[in-house]
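On clarity, I found the account of how folds are encoded harder to follow than it need be. Since the whole study asks how a given chain folds, the encoding of that fold should be made plain. For illustration, here is how one protein appears when written out as sequence plus structure tokens:
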Amino acid sequence: MQSNPLQERLARRLRWQQEAHVLEKQDIVLKNMLPKLRAWQANRLQKSFAHFLADPKKRPAAEFFLSDLYGDADFMQRDAEAARILPVMSRLLPENLLMAAVDAIELSVLSHALDMRMARTLAGFKTGSGALNDDDYCKAYRQVGLRRLRQQQIDLVMDVGSRLDAVVKKHGISRLLSASRLPARILGLQHLQSFLERGFRAFNHLGGAKSFLNAIHRQESVISTRLFAGQAEPFKPPFN
């Protein structure tokens, strides 16, 4: 694994992420609107993933996606740890597992940037102090545009899932993850280690992710297409 180019790539994205967080804390518009937007998105995704959550086999993977990829949590600690993990952990863990973390960070940075655009646009609608509604979100989504980046956002989610699925098929990965736990704790990388372990457990339980990932990709791509087209009830199944 070529760690130097990857570390440089991570460092650039982490700088963007840090700058975005500073701006968010200083900008009253973003500070007020981003929590509302993230709460709305978390609620929408919980509803859209209801059929996955109802399936005992798919539930752990669906919960991992909702909490660690689509979640409204602050991933700064996990992402910052990644800049330090490669030199040490690349000697212990397979490339696909580390690249799943890198893809998750890319997703985090991209999602943050898109959310900031959405928040500024929503603030211009003068929605007041109440929660956002579907019409607000749909209008802002179309106005912000950036169709290619929206597709990239969906593709990055799939990349994380595909890498985790490839990893669980390899013999001895669980043992390697256990072996990396102590170095991670010593180096202060608990958040990233926990992320990798949760992802491995979720996809190991899934027992083959192809149909699960295809269903999510189809669902989120159809929703995005409907939003850009201004269709009524864009979040309502079926997603054919």
